[in-house]
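pasting input
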Amino acid sequence: MQCLSKSFFQGDDVVQIARALLGKSIITTFDNQFTIGKIVETEAYNGSFDKACHAYLNRNTKRTSVMFESGGIAYVYLCYGIHHLFNIVTNKKGIPDAVLIRAVEPVEGIEIMQERREMQHAKPALTNGPGKLSQALGLKTKHTGMSVLKSPIQIVENELIDGASIQSAKRIGIEYAASHASLPWRFYLKNNDFVSKT
DNA sequence: TAGGTGATCTTG
DNA sequence: AAGATCACCTAT
């Protein structure tokens, strides 16, 4: 399968990149464990202009500095002390845009995902949320800064998505972002069982 | 619907 | 130095 190009992730419209990532697949190979998930839900975080973005007003800290690197690398951070949330940094160096991957549909390595999630069955709960998919694919904070263009993390072309099957909506869990909380920067595939519950 | 859990940010 | 907050998940 064809890996996405560096220039795809360096584009300057993070909202369009979030939309375009639907239908692509994430391949991870950690500890000789191979897993693939198809992206079915994303959210765009629009750099220094976006009150919901960790790098709002160019806040550049130990945690957020990776967002200022050029696009095509992972930003994984710990949320609520428990959950590892997987983002892909986009745009040029110095502009802190990122796309949060909110849900995937398991494609390969489902048994491995079940082990990591300590689940007996391949129910939607395996990967239907940002913390869940990160755990299922083995993505952790230590992977921050790694390229998503080569093993062990690769984003590849999978199926082309018809625009009519894409739904946009406001982002989840960012009520503190006030006027930016209602922007339609969340994208998901209609009628897909693995889209997160709201 | 509430509590867990820890990094990060804010306040004093 | 201490308290509040947080791009979530699981179980009551």
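fyi The two ends of chain A are 32 Å apart (CA to CA).
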